[in-house]
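re: ur question from earlier - yeah i can do the single chain one, its not a big deal. heres the input i used so u can compare w yours
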Amino acid sequence: GVVTDVADSAGEASGRNGNNENSQSGQQQQSTQFQVLIRFRDKDPQFRPGMTVTAQIETEYRTNVLTVPLACVTTRPMRPAASATPDPAGKTNGPPAHAAPAHAAPPKPTDVVFVVQGDRVKAAPVKIGICDDTYWEITGGLTNGEKIITGGYLAVDRDLQDGSKIKATPAGAAPAAKP
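and the output i got, formated as C-alpha cells:
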C-alpha cells in the first residue's frame, strides 16, 4: 500500500512526502495493528529507526471485478494436459507429445475453483488478484455466470477432487441430510 499519513508517537500528523491526508474520506475505516517497515522518500530527522508511529495506509482497491468467496479457492497440483500425437491413419504415434519425464519434479500447486458441469465438478485453474476479508478477485480462468462450488474448508479443500460427483443445493438452502 501507499502511506498516506504518518504521525509520531505523540500523534502529530506530518502530511509529508506529498501524501493526501484525506484520501479515505467517505470510506469505511478499520483499525488494525501490525508491524510494518516504511521507507520514506525524503529523509526527515524527526523520524528515527525503531520509533513507534501511527500510519494510515492506502491499499489497492478495485470495483466491477469478478469475485468469489475466499473458501471457494483452493490449490491443487496441476500438470499440463498430455496429448498423444496422432498419425495420419488416426492411430496414436508413441508417447504423449508433452509427457513429463519420469524424473520430473512434482507439479506446483495451482489456485483452482470447482466449476459445476452437470452432476460433476471440474477443477478450473484461476488467476487470483487482490482480496479482502471475504472475497478473492478472479483475474483469469473463470467467467461471470459460471456456477462454482461453495462450502466449508473441508468440503472444498479436502473432499472435492476433479471429476467428483455432486448434488446441487440452491444457495442458502440446507444440504440434504445423509441417511
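Residues 9 and 51 are 8 Å apart (CA to CA). not sure if urs matches, ping me
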